[in-house]
Amino acid sequence: MNPQFLIDGLLTGSMIGLGAIGVTLTYSILRFSNFAHGDLMAWGTYATLLIVGAITALFGKVAPFSPLSFGWPLMLALALAMVVTGGLALLLDRILFSRLRAKGQMIIVVMASFGASMALRNMLEFLFTSRPAYFSRAIQIAMPVGFGLRITPDQIALLILTAVLVTLVHLIMTRSRIGREMRAVSQNPALARVAGIDVARVVRFTWLIGGALACVAGVMIGVLVQIRPLMGFDMLLPIFAAAILGGIGSVPGAVLGGLIIGLSEAAAVQIVGAEWRAAVAFLILMAVLFIRPIGLFGVKER
Amino acid sequence: MTRTVLSVTDLVAGYEPGVPIVRGASLTVREGEIVVVLGPNGAGKSSFIKAIAGLVPIFSGTVMLDDEEITKVPAHQLVRRGLAFVPQTENIFPLMSVEDNLKVAGGMLDRRDMTGRIEEMYGLFPDLRDKRRIAAGNLSGGQRQMVAVARALMVRPKLLVLDEPSAGLSPKFVSMVFHMLADIRKAGVTILLVEQNAKAALAIGDRACVLVEGRNAHEGRADALWDDPVVAELYLGRRHAAGPSASDKPMPEAQP
Fold it and tell me: Are A263 and A10 in contact (CB under 8 A)?
């Protein structure tokens, strides 16, 4: 078996993991599965693409940081688009989810997220067509890094970015005031209010952080693969499988779940063939639900 | 005369509009007092103090905390105003460490003050100091109750409100909890609590009021209430030794 699947799996796993953090946080704090999360990824990517275009229009063509395929415009655009995607998530909550949440039936909110997903996806197809777009058409040469493994500079940069972001989110959750408040709301929303926590503020922060990470995951796919309106929706199953495998509410669990699913998918391509790739996440999801529904780092619901 | 910390007037409250559970209850709590709310099951005791704590909708009446009206203030802002509430059940964050339980409640304190206040809490509840890294859900019932009370005290409330602090505890812990409340009062905190365990509550309480069907039935000094045969038999579930003529005795400080 070609060991290259390790690199492929790590990269896919990072994309899945970043998406799964958002899903797991939304689920543990707002108590619903947000099926529009994948489409936030796609929106974030197109937002980044537009901002890069605007920068290029203003400053002309900017040379990439050799040996990477992208330069500072993409980095700046990503930072801005993370804010935009967080804002989009907030807007979606304000005009749709929060109103339905107030009625108390969570299944309605889940269905609404299906609707939001469809609307967001079709708007992208309407605006940008379904033809794939690219951040760069330059071809990168993968460098050998020993043990028969090859990796491109872009891939290294994005793996580092993922590691930094995941560490940052983990530190926020465990060390900061807002992180403690998020954990408090997820464990006992009623007591959180009594303890003086502004639950609405916690909810806003959850959307911001979930949207921002969705944007990064989307841009990763955009840089390494291609940009399509369906790019996020297609990731939905692996993302949910990762969040559930890791244990709902656990940030390290979501990342580990993402890596396990990414690596399994990459291995499956070599063992049973590429046409079975999509089945892997589904099989893992079923297995977790049968064997250990609370996931790796999950805890029993009260 | 001592300052009035809490004054509740003609409170009508309930979960559904048009279905009041509290039907015109009144209460005052003065600085430094322990006031106990008693009453038979279903009398609306719990709803009464939950309404005061902002957790049950209030239909009419007023709640004043230190001359400030707090009737319509949402629960999460009451902490800031100086009213801290300890629910009867699920009153800790089970997966968070003891220290994080305290920190999350002290969110509005600055960092220096927070550290100092946590130390004060460990001084008041020495058991918790050794357990501060342990998830609060893994503690014994009595220690959990300590975490719940310490959490509420973090922000130096003017008034500590507790919903049946002895519920579900073994007898050993029940007496521990009441000793703890007496100590907290000595430390200068005013306390309002609802209790099923009338005897223990009246032993530490200064005054008590008995709610029946959502209204004040009796009110008075804690010791007088305990000695009152009618109140004792009807509402506190205690058989009084005195004969039937005892019920003819006028009730001291009783209100209609």
Answer: yes
Helix (H, G, I), strand (E, B) or coil at B189: coil
Strands B190-194 and B34-38: parallel
Please list, in sequence order, all residues whose beta carbon lies within 8 angstroms of the beta carbon of residue B69, skipping any fewer than 6 positions away.
B62, B63
* C-alpha closest to that of A205 among A40, A30, A53, A20: A30
pLDDT greater than 60 at residue A248: yes
CB-nearest partner of B96 from A187, A193, A198: A187
Say whether residue B15 is in contact with chain A using an 8 A CB cutoff: no
Cβ contact (<8 Å) for B155 and A196? yes
Q: Among A241, A37, A46, which residue's Cα sits nearest to residue A124?
A: A46
Using CB atoms, pick whichever of A177, A183, A302 lies closest to residue B107: A177
SS3 label, residue B61: strand
Range 82-121 of B in CB contact (< 8 A) with A? 85, 87, 90-96, 100, 103-105, 107-108
* Residue for token pair 């369906």: A230
Structure tokens that stand for A201 in this block? 């503020």
Q: What is the pLDDT confidence band of residue B217, given thresholds at 50, 70 and 90? A: confident
Q: What is the ipTM of this complex?
A: 0.85
- Where residue B42 falls (left for φ over 0; alpha for ψ -120 to 50; beta otherwise) is left
Is there a contact between A196 and B77 if contact means CB atoms under 8 Å apart? yes
Is residue A96 within 8 A of residue A47, CB to CB? The reply is no
Peptide bond into A67 cis (omega under 30): yes
Question: For residue A94, what is the DSSP state?
Answer: I
Rounded CA separation A228/A222 (Å): 8
Structural domain spans, chain B: 1-82+157-256, 91-156
Task: Output phi, psi for A231, to 5 deg.
Answer: -55, -35
Q: What are the domain boundaries of chain A?
A: 21-229
Strand ranges for B110-189 from DSSP E:
159-163
Cβ within 8 Å, pair A188-B93: yes
pLDDT digits (tens, 9 = 90+) for A173-224: 999 999 999 999 999 999 999 999 999 999 999 999 999 999 999 999 999 9
CATH architecture of B1-82+157-256: 3-Layer(aba) Sandwich (3.40)
Q: At A152, which amino acid appears?
A: T
Sign of the Cα torsion B173, B178, B182, B187 reads positive
Q: Where are the beta strands (DSSP E) in B53-189?
A: 58-65, 68-69, 83-86, 159-163
Dihedral pair phi/psi, residue A261, rounded to 5°: -70, -40
Residues contacting B60, CB < 8 A, separation 6+: B10, B11, B12
Contacts of B79 in chain A (CB under 8 A): 194-196
| Span B119-147, pLDDT tens digits | 999 999 999 999 999 999 999 888 999 99
Decide if B73 touches A, using CB distance below 8 A.
no
Q: How many CB atoms are closer than 10 A to CB A127? A: 10
Q: Using CB atoms, which residue from B94, B100, B108 is nearest to A196?
A: B108
